[in-house]
Amino acid sequence: MQNSSLKIKMKFFSTSFIILFSSFLLTNYDAMAQNSKTQIYAAVLSNLSYTVGAKNPGVGLFVGDENGNEWKNIAFSNMRSFAIEIFPEHGEGLFYTANGNGVIVSRDGGKSWRVTSGWEVTEVLEAAAVPNNPQVLYVGTAYGLWKSTEYGENLQQLTGRFVNSVHLDIEDASRIYVGEENGLVISRNAGKSFKQVKNLPHAVNHIAQDSANPDRLYLGTEDHGLFASINRGKSWQQITGAAQTGTIYSIAVDPKNPGIVFASTFADGILRSLDRGKTWQTITDGIDDIPVYKIVIHPQDSSIIYAGTVNRGILRSTDAGESWKQFALDGTHVWELEIK
Question: Which residue has the higher pLDDT, 145 or 61?
Answer without folding.
Answer: 145
